[in-house]
Amino acid sequence: MTKIDNIQFNIRVNQDIINGNDIEKYYLKRLQRLRERKPSLKLSESLKTKIKLKLINQLIDEKLLLQYADKNNLFPNKNDISQYQLNHPKKSEKAIHSKLQLKIVLEKLNENVQIHEKDLQQFYDENKRHFSIGEAVEVQHMLIKYPQNDLDLPLVRSNIQKIFKELQQGKDFSELAKKHSECPSNVRGGDLGYITKGITEKAFEDVIFRIPVGTFSDIIETSHGFHLAYIKNSVDNYIQPFESVKSRLIDFLSKIAEKEAHSTLLNQLRDNANIEYLQV
Question: What predicted TM-score, i.e. pTM, was given to this entire model?
Answer without folding.
Answer: 0.69
